[in-house]
Amino acid sequence: TRKQSDSPFPDPMIGKSLGSNGLTQSILLRSKDDMIVDENYQTLCIEWPLSIIYSPRPNFEAGLTPTENVITPPAVGFVLTQIISRRGPGSLRFLLERFGWVPKEGSKGVPRITFPVDVSGFQILRLELGITLEGFSNRSAVLSAVFESIRKSIERPLQLDLIKQYLAAGQLHGYFFSPRPPDSISLAVDSLRYGIGGTSGVANLNSNWYLMPSSEDNLGAEYMRQLVTNTLRTMSDEKNPLVSFRASAKAIYASSGGLIDQSITTPPVFSPWKVEPITGARYFVENRGIGATSYFKSLSWFAATFDLTEDLSPPSRNPLIPTKFRAPRPVIERQESWGGSRYFYLEDASAYEGTGQSTSGLKLSNLGTWRELQTVKPLGESKWKSWHVPPAKQGFIGLPLPVRPPEPSMECAFVVQLLSSLPLSFTSSQLALTNLWLLSFDDEILDLAELGATAGIAYETSLNTDGLRISFRGVSQTLPSYVRRFCRRLVQHHVKILDGSTKISESVYQRAISEVERSPKISKLQKEQLIAAVKQGSEKDIARQASFFLRCTNGGYLISQGDVLPNESMKLLSELQYVFREFGFADGFAVEPDLRSLLYRPIWKPRNASPCLLPGLSLISDSCGRIPR
Q1: DSSP at 184
Q2: Coil, helix or strand for 14?
Q3: Cα–Cα distance for residue pair 179/617, rounded to 1 Å
């Protein structure tokens, strides 16, 4: 047997126990030639060995046989990413951002899971996390926070419905909303890869998506829950993984010491620094800070007690993600023999009783008729109107949506336009204050926006010559609920600013100034006036301007598009009238805009609403298409 000293691998790869707690971590000096990585951001890397075997899932009920694909580590990694990388109170990201240990902007502070080694029976699970200079000086506490969040995730058994939601999110972003070729091309390639017929081939009765089990597959979801739980148990043991920090010279020399971790004073050319024999990288092995877990828990307790935030908590269900997707309602377009311009939606005939059922199992619904671009006034003399863009007309008029697969989609969009002529007469101060109101609402609505992004929902707010436009897109099952919550919080935002329960952060002013400076449509003099108005705007001025703008509205439009039935649109319109019941009666600010002028291209928020930016999506889907070109 070869001695340990003769091993071609450096000591940290063997996992020697140097500290009194038996735990070590390595610090790798990044190359000065690495110009892509910012020297202010370092990388925490944790690697665990796994032993998932590629085999058909076990039968949980007598007489049942596997009907879908084998669950692979990348599918498990996607679910793990949803658990570890989630946002909101009680999440790892929320606390690390609050302590300033990870960057808030961009995706550097998002835990990223990959599998550099992945074969049946042996895998390496790698978790990478970008940390700030402050985080590097408290690196042992950051590491303890990661392990504590993992242990919290399995503090109580994972709910089966929670796993189904994660599977549904993977199916939504990895298949339904992922840019890809038509199904005919995908099926042709899949027939070569998976065969035809049988229990898992193309053209079987189950219509499998091969990268993730369906959320409607109870056996697959149960097997996924077992694999995820076992993996989290493996990850929760701090003695299992290899831990390393890829750090810049600036971090090592100026920010290596904190309350827990010791400063590194030895230059990399001297011992105890070593040279990795394969890459030539210099590395340093140190003891993991004793008391790091207690230090992090103390900080979490103070944050939860004095900042009124929530400590680390297990994951919970997202009310905006359905565990079972409703099939898209197909559309029958007008034929030449029909009288009038009508479009019909079809619903499942099994939900109805009586006659009129078609041979295809579908039936026309009385609530499924749209008259093309017809104005509707549901409640007497109401100033609110409902419009619907027929699917066949999307090529000519409609809200521009992201590129989607060519098959029928369950995606829909809503545009809520609060009508007012006030923006036409805005002064520089009024425009700046109104924009600050909308930007501060982005921060206020961040929790709802993050939940919606995982569910495929995005929003946009923008001022135009006809008032305020609020756009939404998402799955037709849950988007109306999101719109209601969003608008209820919008009309209360200026009230909370006035009573002091909501504070406007300095970043709001910085974003407002940045938007003015980047705008190519504003003259230099106007930019100077707007920037001065932004700097002088107080919270009370912003709240008063928001209240004044809402009082100067005169009704509104609800424009629906996509997989929406008339009764669904009319119900939402009625609810929006109630939400805005205190506003919309300023007759002196009435406008009648052209429908096309309200359907300009939106800039969707939040930024991670794009499927390409959803954490873990790269594990189960190629965002540029399912088939390599």
Answers
A1: H
A2: helix
A3: 13
Alpha carbons 39 and 30: distance in angstroms, whole number: 9
Kindly provide the residue ranges of all beta strands, DSSP E only, lying in 549-597, ordered along the sequence: 556-562
Cα 265 to the center of its chain, rounded Å = 41
Structure tokens at 388: 């619907």
Two tokens, residue 395: 């090529």
Which contacts qualify for 520-525: CB closer than 8 Å, 24 or more apart? none
196 within 8 A of 230, measured Cβ to Cβ: no
Tell me whether strands 24-29 and 242-247 are parallel, antiparallel or unpaired: parallel
- Residues 100 and 499: their CA atoms lie apart, in Å, by 28
- Residue 586 in tokens: 């300023």
Q: Are strands 384-389 and 342-348 parallel, antiparallel or unpaired?
A: unpaired
Cα–Cα dist 260/294, whole Å: 10
Residue with tokens 């009666």: 585
| CA–centroid distance for 207 within its chain | 27
Residue 187 near residue 180, CB atoms below 8 Å: no
Q: Alpha-carbon distance 354 to 340, whole Å?
A: 27
| Cβ-Cβ contacts under 8 Å for 182 (sequence gap 6 or more) | 405, 406, 407
Given this model, what pLDDT does residue 168 score? 92
Contact of 405 with 180, CB cutoff 8 Å: yes
pTM here is 0.83
Of 318, 312, 323, the C-alpha closest to 160 is: 323
> How many angstroms separate the CA atoms of 164 and 75, rounded?
13
Cβ atoms < 10 Å from Cβ of 302: 11
* Residue 438 near residue 537, CB atoms below 8 Å: no
- Strand-pair partners of 559: 387, 415
Distance, in Å, from the CA atom of 568 to the CA atom of 33, rounded to the nearest integer, reads 58
Beta bridge partners of 114: 126
**How many angstroms separate the CA atoms of 590 and 422, rounded?**
9
Closest residue by Cα to residue 26 from 241, 238, 244: 244
Q: What is the DSSP letter of 422?
A: G
**What does the pLDDT look like over 82-93, one tens digit per residue?**
999 988 788 899
R_g (Cα) of the chain, nearest Å: 28
Secondary structure percentages of the chain, helix, strand, coil, to 5: 40, 15, 45
User: Do residues 259 and 138 lie in contact, with contact meaning Cβ atoms separated by under 8 Å?
Assistant: yes
Amino acid at 11: D
- Residue position matching structure tokens 């790269």: 618
Kindly report, residue by residue over 555-572, the tens digit of the pLDDT. 899 998 888 887 888 889
- Which segment, 338-342, 539-543, 604-608, is predicted with the most confidence on average? 539-543
